[in-house]
């Protein structure tokens, strides 16, 4: 009975933002989960593999992808700070003035 009608469900191509990410610490794919608590404007970044966990204040408009990007930046900054490249490139610039 009236079963012939095909229901065509139009699905709008909603751009889905990623909710899981690759862990920059242990390198595991899709192991980073980000929990956003907008009430307290805090995001918890957690890796299911290496169990790294970090809490980060967020702006109200921030999505997981933003939080993750921000965190990556922080990590890069920190690692750059930790291992300040020794000035090996220092050239002994003896300028002969004569
Ligand atoms: Zn990890």
Description of the molecule:
The structure is a single chain. With 98 residues, this protein is α+β, with helices and mostly antiparallel strands. The chain has a domain of 60 residues: N-terminal domain of TfIIb (Single Sheet). The protein contains 1 helix and 4 strands, in the order ββββα. The protein has a 4-stranded antiparallel β-sheet, covered by helices on one side. The longest helix has 19 residues. The radius of gyration is 24 Å and the shape is elongated. The protein starts with 19 loop residues before the first strand and ends in a 16-residue tail after the last helix. The site of zinc ion has 9 residues, from loops.
Question: What's the SSE blueprint?
Answer:
Elements: E1 20-21, E2 32-37, E3 42-47, E4 53-57, H1 64-82
Antiparallel strand pairs: 1-2, 2-3, 3-4
The chain binds zinc ion.
Short description:
It is built from one helix and four strands.
- Distance between the amino and carboxyl termini: 104 Å
Specify the CATH architecture of the domain at 20-79. Answer: Single Sheet
Radius of gyration: 24 Å
Give the ordered list of helices and strands: EEEEH
Q: Can you identify the CATH class of the domain at 20-79?
A: Mainly Beta
Order of adjacent strands in the largest pleated sheet: 1-2-3-4
CATH topology of the domain at 20-79: N-terminal domain of TfIIb
Largest sheet: 4 strands, antiparallel
Overall residue-averaged pLDDT value: 86
* Structure annotation, total helices: 1
Structural class estimated from helices and strands: alpha+beta
Low-confidence runs of at least 5 consecutive residues: none
- Percent range for β-strand residues: 15-25%
User: Share of helix among residues?
Assistant: 10-25%
Query: Which shape, going by the Cα principal axes?
Result: elongated
Q: Identify every distinct bound molecule in the structure, by name, code or SMILES.
A: zinc ion
Task: Tell me the total number of β-strands.
Answer: 4
């Amino acid at each position: 009975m009236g079963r012939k009608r095909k229901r065509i469900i139009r699905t709008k191509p909603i751009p889905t933002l990623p909710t899981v990410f690759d862990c920059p610490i242990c390198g595991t794919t899709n192991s980073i989960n980000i929990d956003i608590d907008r009430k307290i404007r805090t995001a918890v970044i957690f890796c299911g593999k290496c169990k790294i966990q970090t809490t980060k204040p967020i702006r109200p408009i921030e999505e997981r992808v933003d939080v993750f990007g921000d965190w990556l930046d922080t990590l890069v900054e920190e690692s750059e700070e930790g291992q300040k490249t020794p000035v090996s490139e220092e050239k002994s610039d003896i300028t002969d003035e004569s």
